[in-house]
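User: Can you predict the 3D structure for this chain?
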Amino acid sequence: MNFIKKISKILLLAAGCLLLTQSPSFAQHHRKALKPKPASAIVVLSPQLTSFLKEARAAGVDFSMPKSFKEIPAINNENFSFDYAMTMPGQDFEVWLQVHSLKQNWLSYDQVKDITGKTLANPDSTYLQVARAHATAMSDDDKYFARPLPANVLEMYNADAGKTYLFNLADLPEIRRYKYALLIAIQKDHTGYIMAVCLTNEKGPAFFKNINQARDCIKFR
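Assistant: Here is the predicted structure, written as structure tokens:
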């Protein structure tokens, strides 16, 4: 008799659960639980950024757009060649970027050495030649103040060497209204180099504060 009572209780409990699952409130809750998550927003990259990211990957470089900045067209003509450019709206401040892979340079270096026995200039020093060429072409008097980057700064960018060049800008159409520039050049051995030209009208604390807001946007892997 007790056995029959136990079976009856189990059947009543099962029936109650079945009624609960068929109730409107349960069905509504169940539908909510199974509601699919909304699709993530699709991020569309500009052609300039897409091309720059491709060049950056080839040079062993990572880049992400810093906050408070927006893309502007990069200068790329017979006088100046840059891959990407950005500005901080509301500020007289722009950053022009150039990246370059040294893989082909090292391949040519090794081939010439193996075939002819001659030694070309070390490809890892290419960044110095490019930096000096930019500084000379952009300055108003072919003069600039250069200084090496300290080890702790190089470590931040996973770089092996680097220099900065501070100079007055020439009055050229490409440079527009800017008066001063700080060129930051860094390289990673057997990998590539990065050129970042920061342009401004004032060399005061605000200029270096703006540079700090962009300093983490690019580095070697």
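The domain at 47-220 is CATH 3.40.1000 (Protein Transport Mog1p; Chain A). DSSP finds seven helices and nine strands in the chain.
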